[in-house]
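Re: that chain you flagged

S.,

Sorry for the slow reply, it's been a week of failed gels. I finally had a moment to sit down with the sequence you sent. For the record, here it is as I used it:
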Amino acid sequence: MYVHTNQRLRAVLDSVDDAILMVDKDFKVVMCNKRFQNYFGVAPSLIIEQDKREVITKEIKWRVSDPEGFQKKLFWLYDNPEVVSNDEVEVVIPRQRVLKRFSGPVYDDDGYLLGRVEVYSDITHQRNLQKELESKNTQLYLLNAAATAISQSLNLETLGQTVLRRLTQTCGAKAGILYIKTKENTFKLASSIGDIKNSQAIPGSIDKALTSETLWGHLKNDPPAAFLTEAFGSGFFIAFPGLNSEGDVNSFCIFIWDNMNEKWLDKQLFANIGVQLSIGIRNALNYKEAQRSAILQERDRLAMEMHDGLAQTLGYLGLGLDSLKKRLKDNNIDDSYELVSQLRKVVDSSYADVREAIIGLRVNTLKDLGLIKAFEEYIQEFYRLTNIKTSLEIKGDPFEPVFESQLHIIRIVQEALTNIRRHSQATEAKVTVSFTGRQVKIAIEDNGRGFDQDEQHMFKSIHQGIRIMHARAAMLGGSLQILSGKKKGTRVILTFPGKNEGESRWE
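Prediction finished late last night. Pasting the structure tokens below so you have them in one place:
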């Protein structure tokens, strides 16, 4: 059966997935396939042999999202037939879709201009995927901003300001408010930031229970708290809680926009941020409590040292002076000289204790020096003060612990060296710091008299210091070992995680 060439061409064009339309040089539509009707809702029979410009004006342009732009672009291309164009068209009728459009000239074999062809390809699915991916990337960026801000601050007073500043910048909100639950079960204003019309309207605390759900809307319709309308006047809001591991609300955060993007209308997104915020608040509270505990322990140590050292020394000096007074009264000059000599030794020993304590406390100011430099300076002062030849050896590739960990490390080394001065009768001491990928080991050893670890009276004299050393080692996630024997010296070994096992401990 014979099929005309034009019929074959039309059958082929009708079978493809793209809408194809061709106009001659006089703008008359000479070819249009069925897919064009599917995309634009206009049957080919209505536009074949018609002037395309009239068809655009009457039948097509009102079916796209930008009618005037669509018409202006095509009319310009018809006036400039040699131009090749690639762009996109958003169709709204008969249904929403995004079309990629190619428009270009058509020539015969002799290079004579025949007209123009337009090819429309449906890229709606790709655009939706791209839009969804962009939205997810934006949300992930917001989550990352929240996580970074929370991890950067262990101070509860600065946590709120850091989080609000980072999140308002990332999501384009004009303002943010954060409340944190107190031990008295009220919500205290932790921080507020941004463009606030009436900051006096924001209460310093909220006594009532706050919702555990994420809310959003317009302030004039249903704000999560009545004061928001007075504080901001109008705008869109998102309010979400921070839930602890028991599911209780421990914080409540509110963001305000003049014009809010729909990509932020995702309850799960802000629920996840709320979880991170809750963890950050818990960590900050734990850190604050740890700081308080460390301060109390340090006070306890200083009190014990003053009682066992300075207070007892002053008491001994008082008794000695009373005895000296009596001997002088009895004109016992020889015994008086001997007693003065003894009292002088006690004063020298007490002075050494005080000087060493001052050197140890001064390490608090060495934050900018780093751990190794702090060791070097302390050991130099210790040698100058005690005349015990003390050396420092570093093994491996050093890295800097966070400042809070450095203080625990230095205090342990100080306590070990103090015990060497007080009890060991050593002439030499050595501090060895070994860095590996998995752990750090610090050994403090001396060539002193050592002691039998079963001798209770020896341990009693240094018990308080050892107890605190073990507690500090536990705070580092490590352990402490003390090895000694009579006439064998003493070795104190501190071991704690390195970078791989304790990444959060390191800067």
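What I noticed first: The chain is about 50% helix and 20% strand.

Talk soon,
D.
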